[in-house]
Each structure stands twice: as C-alpha cells, then as structure tokens.
Write a structure and sequence with these properties.
Blueprint lengths: L4 E4 L3 H11 L4 E8 L9 E7 L3 E5 L10 H6 L4 E4 L2 H10 L4 E2 L1 E3 H8 L9 H9 L8 H4 L10 H8 L5 H14 L3 H9 L23 E2 L2
Parallel strand pairs: 1-4, 2-5, 5-7, 6-8
Antiparallel strand pairs: 2-3, 3-4
Helix pairs in contact: 4-8
C-alpha cells in the first residue's frame, strides 16, 4: 500500500485543503486521540480523518477546531468509519460536533468472527486483514502529565497509522457481511448505536444513552 500524503492541519488554508481533498471520497476513516477514557472529564487531543490515500490530523490539544472538516462529519453524503465508534463519538459530542452516517468496523468484525476465539481490537483486526503490525507504545504519551502537547513526527505517525486503513477495511468487511448474509443484522446493530453513553459502557455496543452527540448511522 502506498504511503498516503499526511497533513497536520493548523491553519484555515490547511483545513480548507484537507476538506477539498476528503470531500471527494464517499468513505472516510475517522479516529481520535484523547487524554483518557471519560469524555466528560478528559480532553479531546486530536481528530484524524483519511480517505485511504490522504490523511489529516487536527491537533485539538493546540486549540485548533475542525473548521470545514466538521461539515464532513455532519454530512449524510459521506460514510464515517470508526473502530469502536461509541468511544470517539462521545468525545466528539462533548466537543460540540455532530456525526452522521457512521460505520463501526468493530461491530462488523464481531459479527464476522462470531464464535471465533480471537480479539476484535483494531490492532488485531488490521493484522488479520492487512498483516499490519501497529505500534501502540506512543499511546502512553497522551495520558502522561509530562507531555507538553507538542506533536512530534512520531506521535503524528502513530495517530494516523490506523485511520488510513479504515476505508479499505470497511470495503473488505462489507464483502464478508454480504457473503455471510449478515448485512441486515449489522444494520440493526448500527441503528442501536448511541454515541453519548457514559464512558464506562464503551465496550458494550448495545447500551442506551442520551446526550448532545447525534449519529444517523449506516
């Protein structure tokens, strides 16, 4: 796979450029980096979006807002692909962003591998599909009190290392869902997705919730 162009968007011109590139794609991989697991008490540090070729990181930790990229999250014309969407949607909701048309690759993978004794984490899932070995050692930086908020090239690469695979992952999972006749069941589960649950329920894709974040799903 060709390494996609990457951008850390801090200026209005950079955000506009990212929007113009990403708006051309119907499927967008999305991810966040956060300072913890509780969206009500922990900071949103960054938002990453990729069409599989181009990948952008918006450093929310530096006070940078999504600008026009928020329109893509709210757009019904673009499918937003998350892995464990509830987690990211809670943080995005707390930040005031609305997300429409959500595809959760973790829920899809749980259906596809149902009954198999294997992990559905993003790292394990990407390894199964693409033989990609994600290095998660940088993750501890974001929860460290000593982190100065500076986005080093290593941190940027870490944050973008998985999101760029999500559009292709969705394509391959869709083939499996159709082959296994699980498309309708997946659609039902996606309809139950509630983005603003308490963070303690992040692992349960079936729970109920209320809050400001909204998701109109797959």
């Amino acid at each position: 796979m060709t390494t996609p162009e990457t951008l850390v968007a801090r200026t209005a011109d950079e955000l506009d450029y990212a929007y113009r590139v990403l708006a051309e794609s119907p499927d967008l991989g999305c991810d966040t980096e956060t300072a913890g697991f509780d969206a009500r008490h922990c900071r949103l540090l960054s938002v990453q979006v990729s069409d599989g070729r181009f990948a952008v990181l918006v450093p929310a930790s530096e006070g940078v807002a999504l600008g026009p990229l928020a329109q893509l999250l709210a757009s019904s014309d673009h499918l937003k692909i998350f892995h464990n969407a509830k987690f990211d949607l809670r943080f995005l909701g707390e930040a005031g962003y609305t997300v429409r048309r959500v595809y959760d690759s973790m829920i899809a993978e749980k259906l596809i591998t149902r009954g198999a004794d294997q992990s559905n984490s993003l790292a394990e899932t990407l390894y199964r599909y693409f033989a990609v070995d994600l290095d998660k050692t940088q993750r501890e930086t974001f929860t460290s009190k000593s982190w100065d908020g500076r986005w080093t090239p290593e941190l940027v690469e870490y944050a973008l290392s998985d999101v760029r695979h999500l559009p292709e992952l969705k394509r391959r999972q869709t083939e499996w869902l159709e082959r296994l006749r699980l498309t309708d069941e997946f659609a039902v589960k996606m309809a139950k997705l509630r983005p603003s649950e308490a963070a303690a329920g992040a692992a349960d894709e079936e729970g109920d919730a209320s809050g400001d974040a909204r998701a109109v799903n797959y």
